[in-house]
Amino acid sequence: MTTTAAASAAADLAPAGWMPLCTVSDLEVERGRAALLGQTQIALFLLHDGRVHAVSNFDPYSGAHVMSRGIVGTREGIPTVASPMYKQVFDLRTGICLDTQGKDPHALQSWPVAVDDAGRVLIRWEGAS
């Protein structure tokens, strides 16, 4: 997914401070999807309960943009994604690394997400009008 002129037009209809990325129907349950907003790669995850989470697609341990290909799960009720590269586990709500696999801790950037009545997935984005 990438931003387009149509997405820019849709942004004009989004609440102030929020940017539309896609629709819920573009996402698959517990399968990550990458989106590009400006120069930032974002990994989106739709959970079984209907919640959508957004974290950076950049894996700080491997240096690759692969988090959207991660393994979705839970740890003590916390929704998680494991890096497909070295298997560090991150909290999808906060981006905090829960299992560093013996490495120094790094976190993923995370963003607030909302789904509007039209089914659009909106991300809280600095610079969004």
What does this structure look like?
By secondary structure, the chain is mainly β. The protein has one domain (5-124): 3-layer Sandwich (Rieske Iron-sulfur Protein), CATH 2.102.10.10. Helices cover 5% and strands 38% of the residues. The chain contains one helix and eleven strands, in the order H-E-E-E-E-E-E-E-E-E-E-E. The protein has one helix spanning 5-11, and strands at 18-23, 33-37, 40-46, 52-56, 71-75, 78-82, 89-91, 97-99, 110-111, 113-115, 120-124. The strands form three sheets. It has a four-stranded antiparallel β-sheet with strand order 2-3-4-9, with no helix packed on it. A four-stranded antiparallel β-sheet has the order 5-6-7-8, with no helix packed on it. A three-stranded antiparallel β-sheet has the order 1-11-10. Residues 2-6 have low confidence and may be disordered.
Number of domains: 1
Strand content: 35-45%
Biggest sheet record: 4 strands, antiparallel
CATH class: Mainly Beta
Strand count: 11
Average predicted local confidence, pLDDT: 91
Please estimate the helix content.
Answer: under 10%
Mind sketching the topology for me?
Layout: H1 5-11, E1 18-23, E2 33-37, E3 40-46, E4 52-56, E5 71-75, E6 78-82, E7 89-91, E8 97-99, E9 110-111, E10 113-115, E11 120-124
